[in-house]
Amino acid sequence: MGKKIKLGILGGGGDSLIGVLHRVASSMFDKFEVVGGVFNTDINESLKFAEELGIGTDRIYANLDDLIEQENRLPEEDRIQVVSVLTPNFLHFPMAKQLVEGGFHVICEKPMTTTLEEAKILKEASDKAGKVFAVTYTYTGYPMVRQMREMITSGKLGKIQKIDVQYYQGWINPIIHDKEQRNTIWRLDPEKSGISCCIGDIGTHAYDMIEYVTGMEVKKILADLNYLYEDNAMDIDGTVLLRFEDQIKGVLRASQIATGEENNFTVKVYGDKAGIKWEQENPNYLYLLEEDKPLQVLKPGHAYNSDFSLSGTKLPPGHPEGIFDSMGNIYHGVAKAILGEEAFDGEYPTITDGLRGMNFIEKAVESHKNGNVWTSIDD
């Protein structure tokens, strides 16, 4: 086996769930090696965390400026090649832009930026640098999501006529009703989170999923968002009507105040021949609905699935695969792109997906604030 791709990480230290997810995902397929980064704004905490992970401390830096400067002094074959940006939302844009201009590939958490204008600037910088740029819309890596995409593309469902996606969580419910608490978390702080909480956090996952599995672009949206309290500047719930071309319509529902819900992300697509639905909390089941036929349940690892689905399946049928595997498939797609290897279309979400995600977030807020009116999504 050749040398592994050298990976640096920004953020994700301590008990960060997203940090664990990315580190485990990067270790799959034996393509990456975490060699350094900036895990914390306090370098002593970063050094301590690196020691806990068993990573050499010689490439743990005080800040991003030091990382870029010191790494670019090393021989090219020894440098960090790609950096994962796992910091709060407001840091995504400046860090990612500095990285691509510094000669690094980037894997960035979503939302990619806090404004559409930032996303456009970042895409221009990335295109100019010619580097791989991935945005971690994690759920696109599930084998049965990839199977859903292939079935829709192949015409199994016929002409698409209805799309319904729901992403319900309840985690913010105990916080939002306490004035003191809701003013202390960063996700409800526009300076750190951007213009949206719910739509920017989970609604963008749902939006990207719709375009990913259908291959269609949303053309117009009408959003009705819920802020619940007048002193709360960030949406924590929302419903968005969707219009595609050819009279195709859909609905996107996202909530962080759906009491008792954990991570209820459900995708349903209906054509004139069949319907299909997938639930993130039961990700190994893809339901196929056809007129006058029994319900069919498709599962990963079987030969009846597409080559794309099977390429992201690591275990035999009957062995559950989950979110770590999904993120691992995205990292594998990034590795193929960096190494110039042959890959399936859609193996990782690109900077264009990140740009469209920011476009959706901004237009959803705009639609709501303008009185719940239809608003066009830019091409």
From TrEMBL:
Domain named Gfo/Idh/MocA-like oxidoreductase N-terminal is located at 8-137
- Xref: Pfam families: GFO_IDH_MocA, GFO_IDH_MocA_C3
Q: Where is the GFO/IDH/MocA-like oxidoreductase domain?
A: 145-276
Return the Gene3D superfamilies for the record: Dihydrodipicolinate Reductase, domain 2, NAD(P)-binding Rossmann-like Domain
Please report the organism this UniProt entry assigns to the protein. Answer: Zunongwangia mangrovi
Membrane-traversing stretches: none
| Gene Ontology MF, one | nucleotide binding
Against InterPro entries, the record matches this protein to: Gfo/Idh/MocA-like_OxRdtase_N (IPR000683), Gfo/Idh/MocA_oxidoreduct (IPR051317), GFO_IDH_MocA-like_dom (IPR055170), NAD(P)-bd_dom_sf (IPR036291)
Which named protein is this? Answer: Oxidoreductase
